[in-house]
Amino acid sequence: xxxxxxxxxxxxxxxxxxxxxTYETFCVTVGCGEESGPQEEQETAxxxxxxxxxxxxxxxxxxxxxxxxxxxxxxxxPAR
Length: 80
Hints:
The chain has about 80 residues and is of the alpha+beta class. Helices cover about 20% and strands about 30% of the residues. The protein has 1 helix and 4 strands. A two-stranded antiparallel ribbon has the order 1-4.
């Protein structure tokens, strides 16, 4: 018979700056489907929305911000 012992090990999750952030915008006007594509700068994605609105009159967008996260195990003092 095999026995297992399980213990809770605390972890934290934080934004990983090395991964950066990606900004994307999507026109949600029915039948449109155009999108900015992934952008490294938020302003670039926003400018795409402004140009798209100027060309089409479409004025509703979905914005997506993607970042990277790193999970690390919290260090614990050794048991005595």
